Amino acid sequence: MSDEMYRRLMNIKNPELHKFIAWAIDLCKPDSVFINTGSSEDFDYIRKKAIEIGEEMPLKIPGHTVHFDSPYDQARAREDTAILLPGGQKLPFIRTKDRDEGLKEMYSLLDGVMKGREMLVGFYSLGPKGSPFSILAVQITDSYYVMHNENILYRAAYDEFVKQGERARFLRFLHSQGELNEMKQSKNIKQRRIYIDLPGETVYSVNTQYGGNSIGLKKLALRLTIKRAMEEGWLSEHMFLIGVEGPRGRVTYFTGAFPSYSGKTSTAMIGRLLGDDLAFLRNVNGEVKAVNPEVGVFGIIEGINPIDDPLIYEVLTRPNEIIFSNILITENGEVYWNGMGKPEPERGINYTGKWWKGKTDEKGNPVPPSHPNARFTVSLKAFKNLDPAYDDPNGVVVGGIIFGGRDPDTLVPVFESFNWEHGVVTIAASLESERTAAVIGKPGEREFNPMANLDFLSVDLGVYISNYLKFGEVLTRPPKIFGVNYFLRDEQGRFLNSKEDKRVWLQWMERRIHNELNAITTPIGYIPRYEDLRILFREVLNRDYGLEDYTKQFAIRTTKLLEKIDRIWKIYSEIPTIPKRFFDVLEEQKQRLLDARSKYGDVIPPQKFE
Length: 610
Hints:
The protein is α+β, with helices and mostly antiparallel strands. It contains 17 helices and 33 strands. One of its GO terms (molecular function) is kinase activity.
């Protein structure tokens, strides 16, 4: 280290931190080390170096840059990611590896990997600084692109490390992009490894640049914080956090968990935005409060257009600090992504190098202008619907938690659980979502995804669900739990709802939290009354809402719902740690559905329950 960098590090009086950084230097053998204090000068240095080295390229609009990942490094690498556990322990649904074996492999891959490069060390806070919610983290990387992302997405917290000194407990992230090709992309994809060491609260990542595998504080940190949440009795969730404006200027806060392509981002953008992806939830004096650990968005860009996503589209097309990844640069230096509502260009440059209309890969498959998982990174401050409470160290009170998936034929568009326990078991833990073309496998099949968090779990699913149930037991004011389904179809395969209808469902949920609307009791929970929705459709969308539409959408499909219970029962019956009460709640729902079916038949109009 230079004298200046050494001084910066020694300002933090934390021997554990010094030991970790010294060890990483000794292992990775960089030529130099840069300590990022989070100052505007340091942020500027990282931005400039990303362009100078060629990890990013400047674009026509001021502040916009583009980064290209390898064609083989375009998404979270499930097959190369593992949770390291001692003694070869196994967990249901989670890829694990023996800790000693995994660390040995990782250390050999990282040995000398940064020769000829600068090591970057960044200090961040997950959650508002100085907040009871916040968790400190250190990111070490040799990628200016990765640290540029971290600087946008997280709160710089060098000052917090200085302040806390020896008291600072922190998560650790060590990443190297490995050897690069002429396009500055990770070259040794076959040696790509992402290992999460739970006992050491450390994530190692090598031979990858894709954000989900390399930006430590994103989904990699989620695995570490889920484990910490289990131990400390709170929830670390894959959820948006928004404020919904109700009558008379009232704002009610919601979190929401949706698997990919189920409406998560579009729902988050309807409200007053606090976060689009992650949330920490804690019990504070009997009510749930939440913060967003992030201050930026690492979002999927495909399909964002001025009609369906005006807020995001506006952000992406004006001067601002934005990193685009894996989109197309046209010949005049503009960006193009699939589904942006403009004609496809004839040629340009994308993650495969030179691109032209009709280009195919080595297997003869068409290469689209931008990758389906192309992304953008931007600060929350760029959004005009940002809620002022987004950085409140005390968090916001959560009135409702929403769970949604792609379901063509079973669940109604919106419903409310009877209570916390019923919601956790029959809505959150029973979440399924239809596969889309973007997910490997057969489109149309249902994928089990409890709490939309299965990909990121680092603990036994039974323990995770038990923690959820216990968390609710001690609340004096538990949030209401809602299920939504924007993807219900008729027999001809046509959607029964428009994209805009979710605005009405949010308003119904907001009013239910304040006990301003009655509801109909059905075997699966409470559903809206037709009269209330008719008024809300007129108020919110200035549209008539027909009784026939209501009857189709809110029919209780008993046979389909019973089939769902059988699927869920089978999955959980193979997990020994699931509490008995879980099955009791499922059984009660099953009996209600069987009784209703014997009385009213297979598909029951909502009016029968009034």
